[in-house]
Amino acid sequence: RSWIVNDGEIPEIYDFLLGVEGIMRWPSLPEETWEAVVALDLGKWSRMGKVSQVISRDRHFIIDIDHHSSNKGCGHVSLIDPNISSTGELLLEFIKWAGLPVDRETALLLYVAIVTDTGRFSFDNTNASTHRNVAYLIDRGVDPQYVSNKVYRRQTMPQIRLYLRALSGMKKNKSGDIYWMVLRLRDFEETGTDAIDSQEFVETARSMKGAKFGLLFREMERGKKVKVSLRSNIDCDLNEFASGFGGGGHAAAAGITMHLSVEKAIETVLPALEAELSSPRDSR
Predict the structure, then answer these.
(1) Helix (H) or strand (E) holding 77
(2) What do you get for the CA distance between the two ends of the chain, in Å?
(3) What pTM was computed for the model?
């Protein structure tokens, strides 16, 4: 037997996918001993969240499949390719290599994994191979418009109210090349929204004219913990930058969890980014 386990709730936008209702959430796990664990898209071990409390490298055989350059190998067997667009595409390449069939439902699952992890094919890790693999999935019955309608075109009024709060507080630095937005816990509480509802807001900050970096500071614990999402429009390795603060991700998209107030997080991250822009190796 096998189980699919996630640390948090499954976002409503994925409710149309086959098997989503069977995904288990920590701590509601079966009281059984697992022989093997397949860890997907982790970046690093801590991204497993509370699920890591019931998984041990000593007791379980761990297979690590990922495309994050920050992942140095979390498993006994690791399949990691930072040059591929997404873990979904990496899984598809493995399935094709193994000669396994890809039916319509499997193709749909893989397509959603790829389209969401590439920012609708807009991130710098999207290449010709990605589009060839997407064509392969479309040939097997995936309807791109259907996926877009389900994943990106079901905005609710609470989500829009949250977005307006983030927009109204957007700021930029003096040179206008760094834009950032802030969301506090009260913004989510007062609009009846959750963190997943803000996952694409940082792209608005990145899309501003003249922006080299776009950021979203999202308060996780009042005055104590902040998630910083970073996006870049220039040749700057944000994974390397974020790793200096205990975070990670990709060259153009990364994240940091900081045990600071929102104000302290802003005071810490922004000067460091400005230093990146003024570094001698920067010819931007």
Answers:
(1) strand 77-80
(2) 53
(3) 0.86
